[in-house]
Q: What sequence folds into this?
């Protein structure tokens, strides 16, 4: 008989105080389910894995699904790197299995179903904002797929995230919002923040070390940054209650592990903040190229909750923070130019590594109504021309697909690389404008994917005692890490026609055509004649009578 | 007459070369009145850059030129400025020679008519003399080369200069009586933009007239010649399209070039009537009005050719003018071609009724176009209606110009058969009206 599929659910919260006084909380809920979706067995018994997602995955033959809803923009230079980057608005990218015959039709159905599941307007995803990246979005799960025709990527930068999106997201959790870490997810505090991002990631992972069978992993993540001044009332003192207006009382009973990590990495001499209640557990992990130390609260242990049966950790600052590690890869994007006819998109990519150059993949999807001119593409680093070694450009088709530009750029160390491209703004039909046309049109964030060499973990002159035969080549753990950086979305104004004028325009233009027609018709169908003045009224009546009488006319 | 023509060419080339060197060249090549999505130089460069990246230029929606243009500029990319100046000079020289031939023919016909006593006695002042016709070819070349519209079109490197050159060569070969060359150049002009197809009829009428074949549907010689000409024309067109297929190996260019011209998907503002009309059109009626507007360009051919079958050169002028007014993406370069013909009809001056109004409106509109564009796009203080209004006025002025010349032409013909000083039945001076 078949083995009953095994489940595993883990939940985790990481609290990281940021250098600017804000605090960053990152929730991750991970369900691993031993069912093999790619196999023949029909999956119908759902326990911890949400049924709605499971049905979506089986029906649309999805190999990997990544969807995120973000409100706000991640400020890399002030906050460092996020654990899971996401662009403002909604982002959805999906790898389909190779059994799918009509990928575009399946994509359309999938977006509509997901828009129902998450109460988001994902149905606005259509061929005009979907692209097929050729290099940037490799699968994050197992599988060595090379055929990018099964990948689809779309962003909706205009999408707003609110409670209506959080509620169905919480419903997917095994414990709902009743127990465990998810009791903290209350919308009135979560949306009173500078940055809020919730995401769902589904991917196949290996079940055993030999990877003979696969499991499906579902990760639900929620990243939120609370601002020092709006949420913190200016006082640099954070607690769970202050952030979420709740405290933790128990772990989720269905979870095999439920932990809270607080980032306490700092200058070992002076600890800037004090963490209470104290905890003996400490972990070290190399995250984003940096070795960080975390205090761990294990919620499955009753001792964590203390005598009051609730856990409310408090971080109180006494001294100023040390220097923040400068993020190695950072980017900005803006529109240059004036007027509504043309413009330029400038993307700046900063490499702050002191001595290492590394390549990055830049993906830009620009809507069709900003007509890019690829012959004006210039890439320059430190004032000199820097040719990309790989360019994949797919020009747009009006009202059908957007521009797709993917480039592999080599960033010199400690430099700024500027990518410039000119565009022309199109005049759309009056029905194609949104109801607020003067707000502008959004251009989705560019994606920069890179394997960044880490600064801290890279130490060629190690003093740790290791045998010489193993330490010749600089090979520390996590010598480079994968990073994705999203730029700002752009807001571009397009020239608008006058929306009150359809009837008038039709009348006036047809009048001009009629003037042309009328003059030519006159000249073509009439001939010149001498103008004989018509006789007066009396004479005309007399002529009529004379005609009756048969007498010659006057 | 070679020396004044050479001098004129030198002056024209100097002006253009001087303007190419200034910063005005970049400014002018961005102006929507001068370039359109069909013939902008920026798009030609973009198409060639896409080809360099191993992407078909027709896979996107930026490049709408024919493959022959790709082929031409693949080799002449570095000499683009010289190419466009040469095209302008070629057009001027072709028009000069064509009008010279035409004048000879006009004078000969007039001589026959005088000898045959077909002209009434009081029309002697309408008779044209060789002295007055002597400078007309030079004036035609001058009107073309020194027209500000032509100069800006050349400085912007708009490919409509090349189209004008092909049409001018077509007119020259028609005047010279060479049916094969005429068919080939007409096929080339039609291949570039569909609208010169309507010039087939006046060319045919002229060639038939030259060979003294009467235009009578019952005569076999008429059909024989017509079929010959059409066969040459269609054959050359087919050869050109097949050559284009072999250049890039696909039929992608057909929807990208001809589909684009006919279905008008790009609503970039220009001096024509289509853009705002289709920007504000209800989707339900879009196809209907598209067909109406496109048929509007073509359907004047038959009535005009029936009315003007004795005067095919005037018919060519009328057709070129109507194409320039009603085509889907007009630019000022298209206007300059028919305006070059105006000195040929300067004997009609006494019968023109609206010429002052028309010239004032045209001058005012040409000045207002850049102003209202700036106010809409850059200053943000006007909106699209202002620019649209000037477009309408410009089109109305052109229509008035064309119909005025048509009126004057017909009236002169009427006078030449019926006498200049007409009297009413009671002996007093008569007025002529159209009834």
A:
């Amino acid at each position: 008989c078949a083995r009953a599929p095994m489940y595993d659910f883990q939940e985790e919260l990481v609290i990281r105080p940021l250098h600017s006084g804000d605090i960053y909380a990152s929730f991750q809920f991970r369900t691993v389910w031993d069912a093999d979706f790619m196999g023949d067995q029909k999956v119908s018994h759902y326990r911890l894995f949400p049924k709605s997602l499971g049905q979506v995955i089986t029906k649309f033959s999805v190999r990997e699904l990544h969807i995120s809803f973000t409100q706000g923009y991640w400020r890399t230079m002030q906050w460092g790197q996020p654990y899971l980057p996401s662009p403002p608005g909604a982002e959805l990218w999906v790898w389909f299995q190779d059994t799918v015959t009509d990928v575009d039709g399946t994509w359309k159905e999938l977006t509509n179903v997901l828009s129902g599941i998450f109460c988001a307007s994902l149905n606005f995803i259509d061929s005009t904002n979907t692209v097929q990246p050729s290099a940037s979005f490799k699968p994050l799960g197992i599988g060595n797929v090379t055929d990018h025709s099964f990948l689809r990527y779309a962003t909706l930068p205009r999408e707003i995230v609110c409670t209506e999106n959080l509620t169905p997201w919480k419903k997917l959790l095994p414990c709902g919002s009743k127990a465990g870490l998810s009791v903290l997810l209350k919308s009135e505090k979560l949306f009173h923040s500078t940055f809020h991002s919730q995401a769902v990631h589904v991917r196949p992972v290996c079940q055993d070390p030999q990877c003979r069978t696969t499991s499906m992993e579902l990760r639900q993540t929620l990243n939120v940054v609370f601002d020092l001044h709006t949420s913190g009332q200016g006082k640099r003192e954070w607690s769970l209650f202050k952030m979420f207006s709740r405290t933790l009382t128990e772990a989720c009973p269905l979870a095999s592990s439920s932990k809270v990590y607080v980032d306490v990495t700092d200058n070992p001499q002076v600890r800037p903040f004090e963490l209470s209640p104290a905890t003996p557990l400490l972990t070290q992990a190399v995250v984003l190229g940096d070795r960080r130390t975390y205090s761990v609260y294990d919620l499955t242990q009753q001792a964590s909750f203390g005598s009051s049966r609730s856990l409310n950790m408090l971080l109180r600052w006494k001294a100023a923070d040390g220097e923040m590690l400068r993020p190695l890869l950072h980017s900005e994007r803006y529109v240059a130019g004036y007027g509504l006819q043309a413009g330029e998109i400038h993307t700046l990519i900063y490499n702050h590594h002191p001595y290492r150059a590394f390549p990055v993949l830049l993906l830009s999807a620009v809507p069709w109504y900003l007509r890019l001119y690829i012959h004006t593409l210039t890439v320059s680093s430190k004032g000199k021309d820097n040719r990309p070694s790989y360019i994949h450009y797919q020009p747009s088709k009006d009202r059908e697909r957007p521009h797709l530009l993917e480039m592999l750029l080599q960033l010199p160390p400690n430099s700024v690389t500027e990518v410039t491209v000119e565009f022309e703004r199109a005049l759309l039909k009056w029905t194609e404008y949104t109801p607020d046309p003067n707000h502008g049109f959004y251009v989705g964030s560019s994606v920069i994917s890179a394997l960044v060499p880490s600064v801290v973990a890279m130490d060629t002159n190690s003093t740790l005692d290791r045998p010489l035969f193993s330490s010749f080549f600089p090979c520390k753990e996590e010598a480079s890490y994968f990073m994705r950086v999203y730029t700002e979305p752009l807001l571009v104004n397009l020239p608008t026609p006058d929306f009150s004028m359809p009837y008038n325009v039709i009348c006036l233009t047809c009048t001009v055509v009629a003037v042309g027609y009328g003059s030519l018709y006159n000249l073509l169908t009439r001939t010149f004649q001498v103008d004989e003045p018509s006789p007066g009224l009396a004479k005309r009546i007399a002529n009529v009578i004379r005609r009756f009488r048969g007498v010659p006319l006057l | 007459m070679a020396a004044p023509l050479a001098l004129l060419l030198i002056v024209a080339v100097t002006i253009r070369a001087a303007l190419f060197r200034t910063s005005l060249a970049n400014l002018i090549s961005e102006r929507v009145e001068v370039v359109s999505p069909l013939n902008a130089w920026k798009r030609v460069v973009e198409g060639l850059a896409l080809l360099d990246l191993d992407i078909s230029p027709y896979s996107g929606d930026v490049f709408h030129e024919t493959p022959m243009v790709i082929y031409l500029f693949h080799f002449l990319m570095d000499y683009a400025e010289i190419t466009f100046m040469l095209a302008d000079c070629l057009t001027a020289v072709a028009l000069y020679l064509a009008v010279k031939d035409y004048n000879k023919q006009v004078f000969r016909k007039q001589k026959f008519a005088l000898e045959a006593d077909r002209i009434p006695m009081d029309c002697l002042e309408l008779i044209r003399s060789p002295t007055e016709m002597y400078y007309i070819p030079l004036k035609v070349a001058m009107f073309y080369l020194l027209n500000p519209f032509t100069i800006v079109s050349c400085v912007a490197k708009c490919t409509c200069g090349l189209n004008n050159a092909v049409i001018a060569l077509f007119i020259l070969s028609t005047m010279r009586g060479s049916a094969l060359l005429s068919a080939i150049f007409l096929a080339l002009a039609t291949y570039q933009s569909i609208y010169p197809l309507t010039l087939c009829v006046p060319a045919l009428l002229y060639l038939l007239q030259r060979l003294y074949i009467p235009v009578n549907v019952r005569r076999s010689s008429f059909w024989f010649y017509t079929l010959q000409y059409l066969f040459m024309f269609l054959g050359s067109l087919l050869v050109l399209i097949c050559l284009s297929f072999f250049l890039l190996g696909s039929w992608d260019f057909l929807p990208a070039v001809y589909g684009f011209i006919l279905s008008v998907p790009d609503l970039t503002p220009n001096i024509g009537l289509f853009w705002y009309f289709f920007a504000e059109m209800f989707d339900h009626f879009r196809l209907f009005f598209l067909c109406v507007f496109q048929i509007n360009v073509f359907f004047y051919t038959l009535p005009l050719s029936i009315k003007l079958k004795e005067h095919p050169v005037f018919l060519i002028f009328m057709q070129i003018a109507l194409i320039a007014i009603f085509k889907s993406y007009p630019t000022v370069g298209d206007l300059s071609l028919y305006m070059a013909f105006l000195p040929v009809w300067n004997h009609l001056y006494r019968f023109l009724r609206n010429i002052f109004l028309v010239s004032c409106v045209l001058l005012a509109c040409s000045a207002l176009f850049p102003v209202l564009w700036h106010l809409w796009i850059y200053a943000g203080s006007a909106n699209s209606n202002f620019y649209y209004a000037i477009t309408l006025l410009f089109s109305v002025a052109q229509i008035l110009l064309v119909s005025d010349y048509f009126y004057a032409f017909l009236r002169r013909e009427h006078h030449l058969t019926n006498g200049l000083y007409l009297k009413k039945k009671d002996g007093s001076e008569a007025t002529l009206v159209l009834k």
User: Anything to note?
Assistant: The helical segments of chain A are 51-59, 76-79, 103-117, 163-171, 187-190, 240-244, 502-525, 537-549. Chain A has a mean pLDDT of 88. The first strand of chain A starts at residue 7 and ends at 17. Chain A touches chain B through 53 residues (CB under 8 Å).
